[in-house]
């Protein structure tokens, strides 16, 4: 049984894992990369047509977005997923195809003017449509046969409607091994969806670590925090722009706005409007309103049983066409603009940033994770100006983040989840920023005494012998990355000798210092403090170089 890490290794996005067992090649997720690509990820090491099946943990494009490409390259096997995941993928993958086609058309117009050969999109709508025809709807909690010697169970992870951990039972000869791919593990206190469920037993676990170095803080009353943003911004006559992932976070925000309206928490502006400006989010909301999917928590289920639509309220407006989207910014009345993409790198939200980011009376409210290298992360880190559509835009609006609103478990939630899994021989930590994966793997080793690794792209393990058979790519490709420095390594070794620390002890000491820095950063309350700390840390890094 061989496991190869093709993506989301020492990086957050682009989850792709190849498992070879029982004479079959199986992929778990085949996602699109987003944000900065720190390491060069290897291509699929076999022809696409030789892949026998795909197991998909959930619909987010960093887990599903390259499936149509796989089909374009010859894959024609089953894609096992929950019904909700299949329904959402039909929306999201078609949207990805339209974006890719549009971007390629724009690039080809420029290429033609420059006398260059035209390009073709990574995949198109026909590839996405063929891909959607391969989905096999699977229920939670029922063991299903994939092939001779291969069965699987899907467990609700509470991250997104239909999200699941994939547990594969592999029987080769008289030996049975169990491997679980967590996908993304949900936040234990978010609305709408059930909390993540546990996996009873697994020999091997491949788990995410997005928030492996931080907590979401105390049980934040983010309904009150959101209400404060609305009241203060509307009182100044401004708009609240919320970049939100079209599937998952947009629906959670609708749930909160319904509650705010129902309780009359914005008394001076009770009739404020919320514009959902994302055709994909509008379609996805229709899927969320199905009561038959078995994903909702008890509070949401009770509302539905009582005949209450948990995602609708007076003042909700939708913008489907481009003209409807443009008209939003010509309406002088204070409002909420809920638009995708969630990290501000594409989609209609960029137009709303262009019209609102320079206005002091407005607020840009982040309600989701911002990957390194994205426009959203740049703004959140304190950029004074940003470039949008070739124009420099001053960041004068209030920039705020709704703490605790996340679809991912924090470090304590991750620890609780893996602690409940019995029989673990080794944990592979993936889907986290470069240093976070190492940090969380170290915590698993120290606190839970688990064998834990943070694999690199292309790294391969023979699970039958529990050995690494290929080391993967450990060289960063981002400009400005630290280079090998023999003098610095010698100095570091001498410092370790002087303090009497062994290599393992000094590494643990450094990791503890890193965790302390993370805790202090997480506790910062104001933008001014965060900018001050960022400047001090950058100054320290320059001195260290």
Would you mind describing this structure in some detail?
With 545 residues, this protein is an alpha/beta fold. The chain folds into three domains: 278 residues, 4-Layer Sandwich (Metallo-beta-lactamase, Chain A); 180 residues, Rossmann fold, CATH 3.40.50; 59 residues. It is 35% helix and 20% strand. It has an eight-stranded mixed sheet with strand order 6-5-4-3-2-1-22-23. It has a seven-stranded mixed sheet with strand order 7-8-9-10-11-20-21, with helices on one face. A six-stranded parallel sheet has the order 14-13-15-12-16-19. A hairpin with an 8-residue loop joins β1 and β2. α3 runs antiparallel to α7. The longest helix has 31 residues. About 5% of the residues have low confidence.
Explain the layout of strands and helices.
Elements: E1 2-7, E2 16-21, E3 24-30, E4 53-55, H1 61-64, H2 67-72, E5 79-81, H3 83-113, H4 125-132, E6 135-137, E7 144-147, E8 150-156, E9 164-172, E10 175-181, E11 204-208, H5 222-235, E12 240-243, H6 249-263, E13 273-277, H7 279-288, H8 298-305, E14 316-318, H9 322-328, E15 335-339, H10 349-356, E16 363-366, H11 375-380, E17 385-388, E18 391-394, E19 398-401, H12 411-419, E20 426-430, H13 434-448, E21 452-453, E22 460-462, E23 467-470, H14 486-499, H15 503-522, H16 527-544
Parallel strand pairs: 3-4, 4-5, 5-6, 10-11, 11-20, 12-15, 12-16, 13-14, 13-15, 16-19, 20-21
Antiparallel strand pairs: 1-2, 1-22, 2-3, 7-8, 8-9, 9-10, 17-18, 22-23
Helix pairs in contact: 3-4, 3-7
């Amino acid at each position: 049984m061989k496991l190869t890490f093709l993506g989301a290794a020492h990086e957050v996005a682009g989850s792709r894992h190849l498992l070879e067992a029982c004479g079959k090649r199986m992929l778990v997720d085949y996602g699109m990369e987003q944000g900065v690509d720190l390491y060069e990820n290897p291509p699929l090491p076999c022809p696409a047509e030789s892949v026998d099946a795909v197991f998909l943990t959930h619909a987010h494009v960093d887990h599903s977005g390259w499936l149509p490409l796989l089909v374009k390259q010859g894959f024609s096997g089953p894609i096992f997923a929950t019904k909700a995941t299949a329904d959402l993928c039909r929306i999201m993958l078609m949207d990805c195809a339209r974006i890719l086609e549009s971007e390629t058309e724009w690039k080809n117009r420029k290429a033609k003017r420059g006398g260059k050969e035209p390009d073709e999109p990574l995949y198109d709508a026909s590839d996405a449509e063929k891909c959607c025809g391969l989905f096999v709807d699977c229920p939670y909690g029922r063991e299903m046969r994939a092939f001779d010697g291969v069965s699987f169970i899907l467990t609700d992870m509470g991250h997104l409607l239909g999200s699941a951990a994939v547990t594969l039972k592999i029987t080769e000869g008289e030996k049975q091994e169990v491997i679980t791919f967590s996908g993304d593990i949900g936040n234990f206190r978010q609305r709408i969806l059930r909390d993540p469920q546990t996996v009873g037993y697994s020999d091997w676990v491949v788990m995410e670590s997005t928030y492996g170095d931080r907590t979401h803080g105390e049980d934040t009353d983010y309904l009150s925090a959101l209400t404060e943003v609305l009241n203060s911004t509307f009182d100044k006559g401004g708009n609240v722009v919320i970049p939100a992932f079209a599937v998952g976070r947009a629906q959670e925000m609708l749930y909160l706005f319904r509650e705010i309206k129902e309780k009359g928490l914005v008394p001076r502006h009770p009739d404020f409007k919320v514009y959902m400006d994302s055709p994909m989010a509008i379609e996805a909301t229709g899927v969320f309103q199905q009561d038959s999917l078995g994903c909702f928590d008890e509070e949401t289920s009770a509302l539905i049983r009582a005949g209450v639509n948990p995602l609708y309220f007076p003042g909700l407006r939708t913008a489907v066409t481009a003209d409807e989207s443009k008209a939003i910014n010509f309406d002088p009345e204070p409002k909420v603009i809920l638009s995708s993409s969630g990290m501000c790198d594409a989609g209609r939200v960029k137009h709303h940033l262009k019209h609102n980011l320079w206005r002091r009376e407005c607020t840009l409210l982040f309600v989701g994770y911002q990957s390194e290298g994205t426009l959203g992360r740049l703004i959140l880190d304190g950029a004074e100006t940003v470039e949008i559509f070739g124009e420099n835009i001053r960041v004068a609006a209030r920039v705020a983040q709704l703490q605790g609103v996340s679809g991912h478990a924090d470090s304590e939630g991750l620890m609780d989840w893996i602690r409940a899994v019995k029989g673990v021989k080794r944990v592979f930590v993936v889907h986290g920023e470069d240093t976070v994966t190492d940090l969380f793997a170290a915590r698993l080793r120290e606190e839970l005494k688990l064998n834990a690794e943070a694999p690199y792209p292309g790294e391969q393990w023979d699970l039958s012998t529990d050995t690494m058979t290929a080391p993967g790519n450990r060289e960063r490709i981002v400009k400005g990355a630290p280079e090998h420095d023999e003098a610095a390594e010698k100095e570091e070794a001498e410092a370790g000798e002087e303090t009497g620390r062994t290599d393992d002890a000094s590494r643990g000491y450094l990791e503890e210092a890193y965790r302390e820095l993370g805790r202090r950063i997480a506790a910062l309350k104001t933008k001014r403090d965060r900018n001050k700390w960022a400047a001090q840390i950058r100054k320290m890094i320059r001195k260290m170089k």
